[in-house]
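TEACHING EXERCISE
Course module: macromolecular assemblies
Task: Read the component lines below, then compare them to the predicted structure of the full complex.
Student: A.B.
Group: 4
Components provided:
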Amino acid sequence: MSRDEILSVDRLTMRFGGIVAVQDLSFAAERKKITALIGPNGAGKTTVFNCITGFYKPSDGTIRLAHDDGKVIALERLNDFRIAKQAKVARTFQNIRLFPGMTALENLMVAQHNALMRASGFTLLGLIGAPGYRDAEKRAIGLATDWLRRVNLLDRADDAAGNFAYGDQRRLEIARAMCTEPALLCLDEPAAGLNARESAALSELLLSIRNELGTSILLIEHDMSVVMEISDHIVVMDHGVKIAEGSPREVRDDPKVIAAYLGTDEEEAVAVMEGGS
Amino acid sequence: MTPIPHETTHASRTAGISALLKTAFINALIALVLFSLMVGIRTEAGSDGQLTYWTRFGDLASLVAAVFGGSILIELLRQWIGSTGTEKLVPPAVKSGMSFVGRYLAPALLIFTLLVPVIFYNQRYILDLAILVLTYVMLGWGLNVVVGLAGLLDLGYVAFYAVGAYSYALLATNFGWSFWVCLPLAGILAAFWGVLLGFPVLRLRGDYLAIVTLAFGEIIRLVIINWQELTGGPNGVSSIPRPSFFGIPLDNSDSGLAARLGIEYSPTHRIVFLFYLILALALLTNWVTIRLRRLPIGRAWEALREDEVACRALGINTTTTKLTAFATGAMFGGFAGAFFATRQGFISPESFTFQESALVLAIVVLGGMGSQLGVALAALAMIGGFELFRSLETYRMLVFGMAMVLIMIWRPRGLIGHRAPTVYLTKAQAISSDLVKEGHG
Amino acid sequence: MDYFAQQLINGLVLGSIYGLIAIGYTMVYGIVGMINFAHGDVFMIGGFVALITFVLLISTGLTAIPVILLVVLLVSMAITALYGWTIERIAYRPLRHSFRLAPMLSAIGMSFVLTNYSQVAQGARVKPIPPFITGGYTLHESQDGFVIQLSNIQIMVVVTTIVLLAIFTWLVSRTRLGRDMRACEQDQTMAALLGVNVDRTISMTFVIGAALAAVAGLMYLLYYGLVDFFMGFVAGIKAFTAAVLGGIGSLPGAMLGGLAIGLIETFWSAYFSVEYKDVAAFSILIVVLIFMPTGLLGRPEVEKV
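Instructor-supplied answer key:
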């Protein structure tokens, strides 16, 4: 994989019993760029995400992640929590998975578990109240506060996450993922259920994550206004295979993409692809 | 939430006396069928092994009458209170008063507890009862780590209590080791068994977890009963050494504490010492738990209860998180077990039945899962209440079971229905338990 | 070999009884998603009601054994079923949409109530009955004099179990009630919207489960010749273990699990030690669940991310 690529998916195949959800999919995501994975419902996008983030073990193919220091990690060989811990891949979920009974601040503190765990001497130093741990906790609260401010939820830091409005929960989940200080941020439909104003704010947030922090982003999205506005690169899937790839402009004009989205009715498809932009 | 959801439409509330009587009549009829054979006929095996029987129609009739009257009474009460439930009945003033009481309840309770041996010095019965209550407070706090914080169901908690008790009893009687050496060992051994139980259940959810923990508890008990060479089997272990005051025995001898202090010896000294010992152990449990909640491991436990998948996505090792929860809870159970052994001086498998596990679990759930104060209050209510019914003898467990059912219907989420956050920026706000998940384990 | 065959017969008979109780656990779990901890005690009540009915019938001078059996069967099924209905009504229905642990503790409380109720009502001593069904067949006799015996009571237990299973399978798969039950199992809200009376269906589930437990209680009484107030706890835990082993929620799984537990227990007692038979049954449950976390026939849980 080239130096500019953070993620390289090669001939990824995922079978469930007899059903092939993803077949021979290859694509790459560039460093410090926003890559979007789009496609109609049931195209296999979330399956790809679950393979990348270790919730599914791919039937075939490789997924490589290259850190900034040049270290390359084979994600298909890591499982479960190690992808987030060692490979530094963070994700959000299509159906938001916050810790509803914990406050927003607590949610963000849990995200810093591994760093705090080390600082607390795997609990022992923390239990006796060692000063090193107290400093680490202060820093963690600082990072969490910072993110709460970024997603505009600072005044609700001490409210239970379960009490938040839908759009706020989406933003909090992104903030939580960012608190793990990831190399790659994977977002599963971050704009789903948001109104136009919230979508615009989301676009702004994602752009600032890319521009200011240089975090690479991979997202699945249906909201074309968001996708077209912020993506650097778009991969289009349908029925488990890649049907197109390119810049927003290239993808928008691709007849295969239009056909996949709305069958034959080209005019409507064009309307969808250009929606919002 | 209404205590007993019922078809309380407007019509039924204003329904006349005839509907009321009809319901009561049907209930009485059901009671008649239910009790007809079980109460109406009493069987007994005669001396020759032949089964004889006699009738008790009087008892049957009074029971049925009680059900008839009881249903009328309950129905009237329900109409009088209305279907609004208890929540709305509490006026705001009372509510704020309650929160005021809530803030000072824990310190007040603690001060009172510290003074119990002073106030009740001459009442051995109360001191014994207080020691018993504190033992259950400690067990409840220990299980609370597993069930309340990590959201893992454990129906075999008594196993760790047993491991702790037998560890101390066997080490002390066989090797003559002192209580203070054995206490940490008992905790470590129990924690080890907690990890051992943790491994097979890592992948299990809900009711599968329930039965495996229950089975584990039974296995430990059955092994204790049957491994007679080691444990003494059903006869148990007796003459377990009493604890010393850090090496100084609490007895009537010349080297005893009383003699050294130059005061007159009294057997109450030991009881008071035991009281403060279990209080210290319970407070240690409480302190450690409160501390742990504010550490990453404790937050990970609670996060695990809320959403295991999200935990994994955040890089939390759910395996070690679950195992540490089991180990921590088990360790406290082990401490309590060692205390139990030294206090009783005699232990047998009979003390470690499923009923004990159920009782401790009931204390945790009634307390409001995860609430330390709630667990303490629940232990006081359950054990104290159980003692109140001592005079009922055989009816005691019957009443206890009924109370358990009624309490769950009355407060399914426990006495303390909210969760306190572990960290805050500006102000710690209690989180309603409606939002708090109870885990899937 | 002969010894093995004899143990196989004994194990299957014991397994049938466990299976009948396990069905009650599994049905309730399938529909309301809770462990009915009181179910073992419902089985015990079934045994007691059967015993009392026996005593009453014999005291009337009735001697026709088939008639006695039939009456006892019907009476104990009817009364025990009413117990099942009442328990659901009092202890579980108010908690139906509550938190998972609340109904479970309510059930544990109910179990204490039933155990001590029958202790108070019928005394703590074991109640024996004289053997009713005697005789049997010698299937095989080896040179060294060991015989494989199949007693009439064993035949009766197995035949009754098979007949009940057949009726029960028909009930679940062919009748309106069975369809309602399966609908509630899938989605109670949707079932209610489609006109299924959810309350009644759940009540009926408890009634059927209790009736089957009553039959198991009667079989236990006839097979072992005694009942006592504490027998529900052990049998209940075993049957619950059976239901989980088979895959809780699965009806064939409950029967399979019941037979498995019956066989494990019998063979362990026969070849190793009687004392550790329960330890063996529980250990095998734990081992099976390590490798098959949803039991033998349970649906594998798909993790939805």
